[in-house]
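Q: I have 353 residues here and want to know how they pack in 3D. Can you give me a structure?
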Amino acid sequence: MGTRTIEDKINEETNYLVQAFNSYKGEPFNNTMIMNAAVTNIIVSILLGHRFDYDDPKLQRLLTIVMENIRIAGSPMALLYNAFPFLMSWIPGSHKTVRQNSDEFDAFIREIFIKKRNRLDANDQRSLIDYFLIKQKQEKPNPELYFHDENLTAVVSDLFSAGMETTSTTMRWALLIMIKYPEIQEKVQSEIEKVIGSGEPQMVHRKHMPYTDAVIHEVQRFANIVPTNLPHQTTKDITLKGFFLPKGSYIIPSLTSVLRDDKYFKKPDEFYPQHFLDADGNFVKNEAFLPFSAGKRSCAGENMGKMELFLFFTKLLQNFTFTAPPMTKLDLTAAIGFTLRPQEHEICAVPRY
């Protein structure tokens, strides 16, 4: 995660993404599936060792499954099921679609690694699945096996979903916000022209681009796409601020409580890149900036996520100016779901060259 090898893969994918955006010739289009596909190809290259064409039917189906499950996970029926699983198990509803989708997704993963197992070459390991299967062969039989098929299915499924949804959703927010605030978009493009010009964006450029870096950080803070974080569990008895939490307690940390804390952010409910800039325009860190969570169980893909956001964002704003279709009223109200995504909308990507 976050290595030069991954940077090269991301830069390669940004070229495909630019081609896809260019195909609309500045006309309105919905960027949801395209952005999802582009970001997915990064994690897929790690998991499976190859990329998909954006219009590949299998990829389209997998993306649809993930997006539907995330939408349903925030619905009232899903919340009731999570609270009362035994009472809700016999009631029909959208919460059962999640299990059906998950089963279909898992079946696809099993099909992939069964094929890989049949032609596995220990001297030619090209993906996470290859490495996992090699470790599976090396693991000595014991009652607490780790490298078993069920775990491989779960690991690939989790990484696929997490590796796609969070970054692609953040990027869609970033483009929508640039449309909402064209003066900020112009400042980012001016910095790109000054530092990168028409060359290939690289991570080494980021330290020379404080305004762009601040804008990306502020997109993550303002969008707050996982407000309740992921559920955690205490590994031992602990007392926190006077409250005793026994081992095994179910905990839902609120990232909103820090990302919108007015003690750390001057304008917590507004999009304000100056939250991450000092008086001289230099980038400054903020200890309340925790979109990837914190501690030992924070996001495993944080470094890769940061790399994806910078490279995708700079590449797109280097090549396009983003505007809203004529007579369109921009809405920054989030759609309901497990993650806070933009409402369905169309954008115009006007080529700059």
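Q: Anything worth noting?
A: Residues 149-180 form the longest helix (32 residues). Strands lie at 232-233, 238-240, 243-245, 250-251, 320-323, 334-335, 341-342, 348-351.
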